[in-house]
C-alpha cells in the first residue's frame, strides 16, 4: 500500500473516531437531560403520593378513633347494666336482711314470752304435785284408819276376811255348776234324737256336686270358612230367614271355623243349633230348606224333652210318674235360673233330699219325688209368681200326685208352723244346690251396669280425664291431668273416689283405686 492510501485510511479512521465521540457525547447529554426530567417528575409524584398517604392516614386515624369509642361504649353498657343490677340486688339483699332481723326480733320476743309462761306453768305444776302428794298421804291415812276400824268391828283381819269371802264364792260356784250340769244332761237326754238329726242334716248340707251352669251363647263348628258365606247367603237372605224362623241370632265374626248362636231361651237355641248343624251337613242352605229342617229339629226337641224327663225320673228311682209331669221335667232341661240348669238342679235336690232322709230314717222315695218336683212349675211358659213352691204343688196335684208329695212341695216356706220334717229336708237340699259357691251366675246387664257406675263415680271428680274399671270391678284406674292435679291432691283424690264408691255402690267388696298422674317432656332435634 502506498503512503497516500495509508494517510487516507488513517484520516478516515480518525474522522470516524471523532464522529463516534461526538455521537457518544451528544447521546450522553440527551440521556442526562431525560434523567433530570424523570427525576423531577418522580419527585413530584413522590410528593403527591406522600401527601395522599398523609391524608389517608389522617382519615384512617379518625375512623379508628370513632370505632374504638363505639366499641368502648358497647362494652361499657353491659358492664354498667351488671353494675346497676348488682347495686339493685345489694339493696334488695339489705332490705331482706332488715326484714329478717325484724322477724328474728319478733320471734325472740315470742320465745321469751313463751319461756316466761312455761316457767310459770312449771311452778304451778310443782305446787299442784305437792298438794296432790299431801292429799294422797291424807287419803292413805284415812283408808288405813277406816280399815283398822272395820277389822275391830268385824273381829276379822283382812286376810281372814278375804279367805272367808273366797270360800263363800267357791261354794256358790259349785252349787251353780252342779245345777247347770244337771240341766245340760237333762236337756241333752230329752233332745238327743233331734240334735243328732240336725247334726246329720248339717253334715249332708256340705255336699258339693257338679256345677250346672248354662250360657246364652252356643258355638257351631264349620268345616271351612267358606261355609260362612253360604250361611249368610246372597244379600244376607239366608241368615235373615234363619233368624226369623228360629228366633235365634247368628253371630258371624272373624273367628275361624266357628259361628255363634245367641239367645236367652236355651230350648230355642238348642233347636237352632241342631238345625244349623244339619244344614251344614246337608250343604243345601236356602230359606225353604231352613224352615223344613227347623220343623224336623223341633219335633226331635219335643222327643228329647220326653226322654230327658223320663231319664231324670229313672235316675232317682221313680217309675210311676204321670206323662205330663215327665214332659214338664224334660222342659226344665232348657230352663235356667241365674245361669243354673233347672233339670240338673232338680235332680240334685232330689238326690240330696233322699240322702238326708235315708240318714234320718225317713221316707226316701217321698223325699226324692218331692225334691225332683219342687220347681216343676218353672217349666210353664207363663210366670209362676213370687211363690214357685205353691205353683209347683198345684201343678203336681193337677197331674195326679199324692197329697203327701204336694204337701211337702207346698210347705217349703221358712218358719211355717206345723210343716213336716221332709219339707225342711227338701228346703235344705234346695238351699245347698242353689247357694253353694259357683252355682249361680249374675246377670250380664247387672255386671256391665256396675262397671259403668264405678267409672262414672271416678269421672265426676275434677281433673279426671279417663277412668277404667278392671278385674271384675275390683280395681279402677284413674288417669288425671298432670297440670290440674299435683302429687298431694292425687292422694286426696284417690281417697275421695274411694269414699264416693262406698256411698254409691254400698256393699261391693274391696275396690282398689289407682290414680295415675303422667308427665311427658317432648323436644324436637333439628
What can you tell me about this protein's structure?
A 3-stranded antiparallel sheet has the order 1-3-2, covered by helices on one side. It has a 3-stranded mixed sheet with strand order 6-7-8, with helices on one face. It has a two-stranded antiparallel ribbon with strand order 4-5. It is 70% helix and 7% strand. α3 (192-204) runs antiparallel to α9, α10 (364-373) packs across α12 (403-410) and α14 packs antiparallel against α15. Mean pLDDT is 79; it is low at 208-214. It has 526 residues and is mainly α. The longest helix is centred in the N-terminal third of the chain and has 152 residues, at 3-154. It is built from 15 helices and 8 strands.
- Strand and helix order: HHHEHHEEHHHEEHHHHHHEEHE
The end-to-end span amounts to 109 Å
Q: Residue share in helices? A: 55-70%
Number of strands: 8
Low-confidence stretches: 208-214
Q: Report the biggest beta sheet as strand number plus sense, adding barrel if it closes.
A: 3 strands, antiparallel
**Spatial order of the strands in the main sheet?**
1-3-2
Shape: flat
